[in-house]
Structures are given as C-alpha cells and as structure tokens.
Amino acid sequence: MNALPKFVAVLFLLISVAAFSKTPNTSTSFEYPTVLKQDSIKIVGLIYNNRNKLRKYTINIYIRNRLFKTVESSARYNFETNVPINSYCTIEINAKGYYTKRFIFDTSIPENYTKQIPEFSFDMDVFAEKELDGVNTSALDLPVGIVKYNNKKEEFEHNKSYTKKMKKVYKDLLIESQMQDRMQLTN
C-alpha cells in the first residue's frame, strides 16, 4: 500500500525533471511568432522632410524594447507592415542624415472585438541633421506621439494633447536653430 504513493511521487519527479531539463536557450536574439493578418494591425506610412518624400529610410519596430522587425521603404517611398494586436510597440523611423523619430503604438483592442481590425496610416516629418546644427536635440529622443485605440471612434488615433506638446518642442528647436543661424550671419 505504501509503495504506490512513493511510486507516483518518483514518477512525477522523473517526468518533471525530463520536462524541464531542456538546455536553456542562451542566444541573445528574441523571436516573436509570425504575425498573421487576422491577429495583427496593418501600419501604412510615408516619411517626409519639409513636404518632400524621403526615398530611403528604415522603420524599426520594437516590442517590449526588443527588435520585432525592420521594414525598408518601398519603391513608392512608403512602407507597409503588420504588428501584432495587444502589444505595446515603439515605431522608430531612421534615415541617413536625419534625426531618428519615434512614436509609441498601443495595439490593444477590446477583447470582444468582432469587426475587421482597422489599419493605422500616418505621415511623419523628420528633421535633417543640418536643420538643427548647434541645438541641444536631446528632446528628439522622446516619442513624438502616442497612438492607441479609441473605443468610441473605433479606430487608432494619436493622443492629441501629447502630440501638441511635442509639436511645440519641435517648433522651439527649429526656432532656436534659426536664431543661431541669424546670430552667426551677424557676427
């Protein structure tokens, strides 16, 4: 009688050891599952500098501060990609000779959402490095916007008050740069 509980305990211990004895993955890379269209949000965008479309740029998408994917601009100068729903992404725009811009994208949608998942389209204006010569650009490290789902409108939209504050910061940087240029011309 007493041998059966011991046998079950030993068997449980052996199964547990076998299940958890896999060699741990020591790789520093992180792989996310492939994103399928029905469990993702389509992002479409264009990147500009002073109303001129940038031809070549890269979009890095991070989830939980880990690189999820990199997307290159297309022949039409735009980009298109999908990101998983219910994640918190940082979208980072990079182009040679331009300051990097970022925005936060909360892709969470209501649990009982049954409609087609809306896509998110945006245009982004980036500063050329020469436009801000001699200016403290540390504010450019902050995200320029925060995007999340609006339940009432049933679409993704940017946080207007945050974006307004960041636009003022960017405008102030441009003004400061222009003032410095004028001072150099008068000297």
Under CATH, the homologous superfamily reads Immunoglobulins
Global geometry: elongated
Query: What percent of residues are in strands?
Result: 25-35%
pLDDT below 50 for ≥5 consecutive residues: which ranges?
A: 7-36
- As laid out across the biggest beta sheet, the strand order is 4-3-6-7-9-10
| First and last CA, distance | 100 Å
User: How would a textbook summarize the main sheet?
Assistant: 6 strands, mixed
| Name of the CATH class | Mainly Beta
Query: What series of H and E elements makes up the topology?
Result: HEEEEEEEEEEH
The residue fraction in helices comes out at 10-25%
| Count of discrete structural domains | 1
CATH architecture: Sandwich
Q: The CATH topology, please? A: Immunoglobulin-like
Q: If you average the pLDDT, what whole number results?
A: 81
Give me the Rg, rounded: 24 Å
* Total E-strand runs: 10
Structural class: alpha+beta
Describe the structure.
The structure is a single chain. Mean pLDDT is 81; it is low at 7-36. The strands form 2 sheets. The protein has a 6-stranded mixed beta sheet with strand order 4-3-6-7-9-10. Strand 9 and strand 10 form a beta hairpin. The radius of gyration is 24 Å and the shape is elongated. It has helices spanning 3-20, 160-186; strands at residues 40-49, 52-53, 58-63, 66-72, 78-84, 88-94, 101-106, 120-125, 145-150, 155-158. The protein is an alpha+beta fold. This is DUF4468 domain-containing protein.
Keywords for this structure?
single chain, 187 residues, alpha+beta, Immunoglobulin-like, 6-stranded mixed beta sheet, 4-stranded mixed beta sheet, 2 helices, elongated
